[in-house]
Design goal:
The chain is an all-alpha fold. It has one domain (14-287). The chain has helices spanning 2-28, 34-56, 64-88, 94-100, 104-115, 123-140, 151-174, 182-204, 213-241, 243-247, 253-263, 271-287.
């Protein structure tokens, strides 16, 4: 019980912050452009992580090749998804965004199956992947009309989670093997994201209108917490509870996003979004082999005599 108490507070805090990120994006859109939101969350996140690096006296990567790999992960895990989520939420509700974010494990398996043939995929995982796309169709309301959402927004959000799907295998192969502290790696990654987005933010504009109190609060929380210090919590959870428990935060964020979207933003949560969201979470559990529905049947072998 004592071990659980050590990681549970940061685990719940991480789920709450990442689940609330979709609310923060809605607030930020009152005054900032999608590219401006992506840049600022990277810049503010980098500041908070660099402070953490200084406090822990960690060493940032020193080799050029390491920074190149971090830049690739930064584009796939931060810059591109950050822009696509903000742009997508101009067309869909925060509830929809939070639910579709849970498709990340499905996209990761899809990328691994297509590009990393060396990794085996079980029948249970394939069934989970197919079930997940049924859930996406339900959440999107394809059979009943999109309601408050439109198809472009759904496509943009799925594009963001597809970027996540590419980032995890790449990071596992080229970044997690680096001999640096995890906080330093996260700081370098988020810093690269801000630098990559800087020319685009300057070229296309950071703000879209006058600053409002919600927009300032939203971008500050999105940057310092959702993109910055949340990484420290995540790495702490992986260290204390293991990667399996740490990654299960995926199941908390849609719930938090739905509660905040309905209670604070007054968004609608339809029956098909609830059903589709549950199916997506079920499929994610199957893809991560947390739930075995289709068991592997070993081939029968003859008995030697």
């Amino acid at each position: 019980m004592a071990e659980t108490r050590s990681w549970l507070p940061s685990f719940l805090a991480l789920g709450a912050v990442w689940g609330a990120s979709f609310l923060f994006i809605e607030w930020s859109l009152e005054a900032f452009t999608p590219i401006g939101i992506a840049f600022l969350r990277g810049a503010l996140g980098a500041i908070s992580l660099l402070i953490a690096v200084a406090l822990t006296k960690s060493a940032l990567p020193s080799r050029l090749i390491d920074w190149c790999h971090l830049a690739v992960v930064a584009v796939l895990l931060n810059a591109a998804p950050g822009f696509l989520f903000a742009l997508g939420q101009e067309h869909v509700t925060s509830v929809m965004a939070g639910i579709l974010n849970a498709t990340t494990p499905l996209m990761t398996l899809l990328v691994i199956g297509l590009l990393f043939r060396g990794e085996k995929t079980s029948a249970n995982q394939i069934a989970g992947l197919l079930l997940g796309f049924v859930g996406v169709a339900l959440v999107s309301g394809i059979a009943t009309g999109l309601g408050e959402n439109d198809l472009l927004g759904v496509i943009l959000l799925l594009g963001a989670t597809l970027c996540y799907g590419f980032s995890f295998p790449y990071a596992r192969r080229f970044v997690l093997t680096m001999p640096y502290d995890n906080t330093a790696l996260a700081a370098g990654q988020v810093l690269c994201s801000a630098l990559v987005l800087l020319p685009f933010a300057l070229g296309f504009g950071i703000t879209s209108g006058p600053l409002t109190t919600p927009s300032i609060i939203g971008i500050a929380l999105l940057g310092f917490l959702g993109t910055g210090y949340a990484y420290v919590w995540n790495y702490r959870n992986m260290k204390l509870a293991g990667s399996a428990i740490a990654s299960s935060v995926t199941y908390i964020t849609p719930l938090v996003a739905a509660v905040l979207g309905v209670s604070i933003l007054g968004e609608t949560l339809t029956w098909y979004q609830v059903l589709g969201g549950l199916i997506i979470l079920l499929s994610a559990a199957m893809v991560q082999n947390r739930l075995i529905v289709v068991a592997h049947r070993p081939k029968k072998q003859g008995v030697r005599t």
